[in-house]
Fold this protein.
Amino acid sequence: MFMSLHSRMSSIPHVDPEFKFVNIDEHTGGSKSDNMLTARDCSPATSCPSPDGFLSYQTSPASNAFMLAAFAALIPINIVTGVRYKTPLYAVLATLGLLLEVVGHAGKILLRSDPASEGRFLLYMIGTLWGPTFISAAVYLVLPHVMVIYGEQFSLIHEPIYCNIVFLALDIFTLAFQSIGIALSATSDTELERHQGLNILLTGLALQLTSLALFLCGYWYFRLKLSHRRFILDPTFSMVYLSSYFKKFLLCVQAASVLLLVRVAIRLAAFTGGLASGLVQSQIVSLVFDDTLVLVAAIILSVAPVGRAFGSSWAETAPLTLASDVSDLPLRNWRPSTSQHRKRAISHPFPASPMITRPSPRPYHSIYSQLPPPLASPQDKPVYQRAPYEITPVQVVPYVPSEAESPPLSGSMPADTPRRTPREAQKLVDPDALWG
C-alpha cells in the first residue's frame, strides 16, 4: 500500500514555487493581468500621448490648488445670491459648473503622482469640459428675460421659451459629444478608435462654440433693434432697465460670454492636433487660456448676480410664467406676432384716447387762395385794394406821400414831418391821380 502511494506521488511532476498561472486572452493575445493594467493605466503603445503618460509636464500643485480654492470660494456666493434674489435655476447651473471645475482641478492635481492614470485624466478632462458648459447654460437664461423686460414686441422669436429650448438642446448635445469623445480618445487601444473619439470631441467643442456665438449675436442684434425704437419701450419694467446697475450687469454678461467664447475657441484649436499636440501639452496655455479665462468669467458673474439686476421682475419675465399667463376675459389670450406689433407701433405709438370731434374753422390759406389777382392802373401803378373784413377787421392803408413831401432817397424822413393817422393819410390820396 505504501509502495503504491509512493509510486503515485513520484509520478506527479515537480512544480516550481515561483510559477504563476496566466490565462491568455484569445482576442488580444495578451494576459488578463495586462488587460487589467491597461484599464487603469495607459502606455506609449496604447493610448498615452506622451512617454510619461497623458501629460508631458509635471502639473504645478500651487497653481492648481489656487484654481481649486478660487472656484470653491465662488460656490457659496452663488448659492446665497440665488436664495436671496430667488433665482434658483440660474444658481443651480452656475453652482454645478463651479463644482465641476473643482473636480477637474482635483483630478489634475492627482495626475502629478500618476500621469498615466486613465481615471484621473478623465476626471480632469470631464470636469474642465463640463464646468464651462454649465456656466454658459446659466448665462443663456438671461437672454429671454432681457427680451421681455423691454417689451414683448421686441422679442426675437414669438415665444421666449423657445430660446431656452434651443440652448438646452445645444448644451445636451455638447455634453454628450464631449464625454464620449474624450472617453474614446483616452481609453481606446487602436489608432482608429482614438481618431474617432477625437472627432467626436471636436464636434462637442464646435457645438459649444456655436451656442456661445449664437447667444452673443442674438443679444447684439436685439440691442441694435432696440436702439432704433426707443420711443415705444414698455414702461412696465422701466425702473429695471433704466437703472445704472442693470446696464452694468449687461456689460458683465457680455464680457463673461466673450471670455468663455475665447476659451472654447482656443481649446478647439488645441485639440485639433490631438492629445499629443503642443497646445494640449503646454502648461502655460492650459493655465492662462483655459483655467484663468473660466475663472475670470465666473468671478464676473458671481460679483454681478442676475437677481440683483432684475429684482422681482426676474420671476415676472420668466418664459414659463408668460406661457402660462391667462387673460381674465373669457376670450382666448391672443398675442399678435412681431410684424403686427411693428406695424401698430409705427402707425400708433400710443393708444388713441376718445376725443370729441369739433368742427375746425376755415384754414387761413383757404381764404387767401380765393382772392383775385392784384389789379394795376393804366400807368402800371400798384393799386392797394382793401382786404375782406373776414380776413382782418383792421384796415391798413399804405402811406403814399406826395411829391412835395417825398423824403430824400438817401436818408430817412425829416424829423419835423407831422405824423398822421391812417384816416388822415387816406384823405391826402387823390383817387383820380392813379388813373390820370
About this structure: The radius of gyration is 44 Å.
